[in-house]
């Protein structure tokens, strides 16, 4: 090692080399984000534990038969904190009706309970559930029509799509009614889907919409279509946005994904919208790999499916200090991981590059009617940063069943109320010095 001040002792040279290596490692692991913002640090899952308080709170609410037109189970499980302190939970397909105590009419084990009295329970396409003091859900918001209970967000009119289309709510944000306004509203991103066959058995993706709700009354005030890709001939190329919506600076970053029918994993995309303009389709800009563009057809994946990486049909993104962290089902992991295991990625920017997959979480699963957890699917990890505390980030996941061989999965869900309710974990993240 050459030195301008003459010879250097071997010990000094070794110490200098170690210091240089430490500096290089620090540069690789910690990236300044500018200004006074926290630095971006490589992140990994340090530990996780089940959160029984939230899991039991929804189980108790679902088991309560004091009303027969409220939530007994559902999936989707997004949440948003309202200005008055309440939390609004948004669910996609939702079960209603009475919960029967054990033993249920079909003779299942004593610990099981069933929805409805031996018949088919009511199923609607979406619902909202309010959570308040003292820390529990207390009310279900749906529409009551002459034909019976219906989803809070009505199906798209026939003039705007095929018969039977529906809406699933995903991420939601409270924002100014317009930029600079003191009045605030709730924006809810909706996935517009239609009946399908084959790979689209659970719905063919059509387009993204944004619903505006008044505050504090949560009254609907209109629905806007954004990033319309419904004309695309291949449904697998239609990117739906709203799996996560993260405020940062003067924008909200809205994440989406495609769902190619020939691949187990999809690809992640991101758009950004100035604060206060989520319901203004003209304000949306889509990352095309080089810049933010107004044309949604120019959007490029920020996390590609390359056979080893990729995202599930729903994933979540949060900021941890100066780092962006993405949690998804390990859809590209193979070996059944796509319906059993979560993994994570991290980035120093909303648009990537994303590093990972990094670590895994295999959360608890209830046994299915055949008595084996392997037939039970966990999916749709969603972060709830409004409940993050010393115990870590609150992460929910949904539970369903593949059904015993030769039987319908829907029958199993009807017979066991534990199979279609969210469960919760606490995730602890830490710096990853190995990256």
Low-confidence stretches: 1-36
Provide the structure class: mainly beta
Our Rg estimate from Cα atoms comes to 23 Å
CATH topology call? Tachylectin-2, Chain A
Task: Specify the CATH class.
Answer: Mainly Beta
Largest sheet: 5 strands, antiparallel
Q: Give the strand order, joined by hyphens, for the main sheet.
A: 19-20-21-22-23
* Portion in helices: under 10%
Essential attributes:
single chain; globular; 3 helices; 9% helix; Tachylectin-2, Chain A; four-stranded antiparallel β-sheet
Strand-helix topology:
Blueprint lengths: L9 H20 E2 L8 E2 L1 E8 L1 H12 L9 E2 L3 E4 L5 E5 L2 E2 L3 E2 L13 E2 L7 E2 L2 E6 L3 E6 L1 E3 L2 E3 L15 E11 L7 E11 L9 E10 L6 E7 L13 E9 L2 E7 L10 E7 L10 E3 L4 E2 L21 E6 L2 E7 L12 E6 L7 E7 L14 E8 L9 E9 L7 H7 L7 E9 L4
Antiparallel strand pairs: 1-2, 3-30, 4-7, 5-6, 6-11, 7-10, 8-9, 11-12, 13-14, 15-16, 16-17, 17-18, 19-20, 20-21, 21-22, 22-23, 24-25, 25-26, 26-27, 28-29, 29-30
């Amino acid at each position: 090692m050459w030195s301008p001040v003459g010879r250097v002792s071997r010990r000094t040279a070794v110490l200098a080399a170690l210091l240089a290596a430490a500096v290089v490692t620090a540069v690789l692991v910690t990236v300044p984000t500018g200004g006074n913002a926290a630095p971006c640090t490589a992140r990994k899952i340090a530990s996780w534990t089940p959160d029984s308080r939230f899991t039991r709170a929804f189980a108790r609410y679902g088991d309560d038969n004091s009303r027969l037109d409220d939530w007994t189970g559902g999936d989707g499980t997004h949440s948003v904190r309202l200005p008055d302190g309440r939390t609004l939970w948004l669910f996609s397909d939702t079960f209603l009706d009475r919960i029967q105590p054990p033993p249920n009419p079909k003779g299942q084990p004593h610990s099981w309970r069933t929805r409805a009295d031996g018949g088919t329970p009511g199923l609607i396409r979406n619902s909202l559930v309010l959570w308040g003091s003292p820390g529990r859900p207390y009310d279900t918001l749906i529409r009551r029509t002459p034909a019976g209970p219906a989803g809070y967000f009505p199906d798209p009119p026939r003039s705007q799509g095929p018969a039977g289309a529906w809406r699933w709510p995903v991420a939601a944000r409270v924002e100014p009614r317009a930029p600079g306004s003191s009045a605030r509203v709730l924006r809810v991103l909706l996935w517009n889907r239609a009946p399908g066959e084959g790979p689209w058995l659970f719905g063919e993706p059509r387009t993204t919409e944004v619903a505006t709700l008044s505050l504090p009354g949560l009254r609907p005030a209109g629905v806007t279509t954004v990033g319309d890709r419904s004309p695309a001939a291949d449904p697998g190329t239609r990117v739906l946005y709203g799996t996560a919506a993260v405020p940062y600076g003067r924008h909200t970053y809205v994440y989406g994904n495609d769902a190619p029918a020939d691949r187990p994993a999809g690809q992640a995309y991101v758009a950004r919208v100035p604060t206060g303009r989520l319901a203004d389709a003209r304000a949306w800009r889509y990352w095309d790999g080089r810049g933010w563009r107004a044309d949604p057809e120019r959007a490029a994946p920020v996390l590609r499916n390359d056979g080893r990486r990729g995202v599930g049909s729903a994933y979540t993104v949060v900021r941890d200090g100066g780092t962006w962290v993405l949690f998804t089902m390990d859809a590209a992991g193979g070996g059944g991981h796509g319906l059993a295991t979560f993994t994570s990625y991290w980035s120093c920017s909303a648009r990537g590059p994303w590093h990972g997959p990094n670590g895994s979480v295999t959360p608890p699963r209830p046994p299915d009617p055949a008595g084996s957890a392997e037939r039970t699917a966990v999916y749709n990890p969603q972060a709830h940063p409004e409940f993050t505390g010393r115990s870590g980030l609150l992460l929910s996941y949904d539970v369903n069943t593949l059904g015993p061989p030769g039987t319908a999965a829907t029958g199993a869900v009807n017979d066991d109320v534990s199979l279609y309710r969210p469960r919760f974990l606490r995730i602890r993240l830490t710096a990853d010095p190995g990256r």
